[in-house]
Amino acid sequence: MGRSSKPIMVLQDEKKFHITKAEIELRKKAEEALLTKIKFKEKAEVKENEIAHKEFLRVKKLFVAIGKNDGLYENAVNRYCMLTAECYDFESKKMLFFDDMKRLEKSLANKEIEFTAYIEMRSKIAGNIIAMDKQIMQKRNMMLALEKENVMTIASALRSIPKKREKEEKDPRAHLFG
Fold first, then answer.
1. What separation, in Å, do the N-terminal and C-terminal C-alpha atoms of the chain show?
2. In degrees, to the nearest 5, what angle opens at C-alpha 17 toward C-alphas 14 and 22?
3. What is the pLDDT of residue 165?
């Protein structure tokens, strides 16, 4: 059976483990050794991109609040912020294609283009919209993978939170003695 992915502090709080005090101490030291104690920094390309920069500041604030502002998260956070900006960019481009579709429909209604030309252009625009959607979904999937891996989803955060301590159970024989 493999070692639990929960931090030792969580396991100790839950009191649901079967390891020795020496193993606990070793595990604590190993977990502490994984942290750099260096705060993560914003990369230049993130700082230069307005949307990525805003997302970095938002995410950094959240990481600071949960005590996870560590250099180990730096690349993932910066990558996440760039993906956020790229999604926004693709969404903006997709909206331009929708605007093109509206103009095309007006051109048909005003009899500025032939119906066959309209169908051909509409098909191309629809293909571009679908291509944009695929790009957006691919980037969102990458973002979700980063979120899951870096305590940025509810499920991943819950894995590192101690469960509430259960009330001590009374001895089932207690009612016999008193």
1. 43
2. 115
3. 44
Question: What are the structure tokens assigned to 123, written together?
Answer: 């098909």
- Total Cβ atoms within 10 A of residue 97: 17
Q: Both tokens of residue 82?
A: 């760039």
Nearest to 124 by CA among 143, 142, 102, 101: 101
Spatial contact of 52 and 43, defined as CB atoms under 8 Å apart: no
pLDDT one-digit tens code per residue, 83-99: 999 999 999 999 999 99
Structure letter (DSSP) for residue 2: P
Locate 137 and state its tokens.
Answer: 């979904």
* Residue 174 to residue 147: CA distance in whole angstroms: 49
Rounded Cα distance, 165 and 163, in Å = 6
Give me the residues of the chain with pLDDT under 70, please: 1-18, 31, 33-34, 154, 156-178
Give the count of beta carbons closer than 10 Å to the beta carbon of residue 167: 6
Using a 10 angstrom Cβ sphere, with 0-12 exposed, 13-18 middle and 19 or more buried, the burial of residue 50 is exposed
| pTM, 2 dp | 0.70
Say what the pLDDT of residue 74 is.
92
Are the C-beta atoms of residues 28 and 61 closer than 8 Å to each other?
Answer: no
Q: Report the pLDDT value the prediction gives residue 12, as an integer from 0 to 100.
A: 60
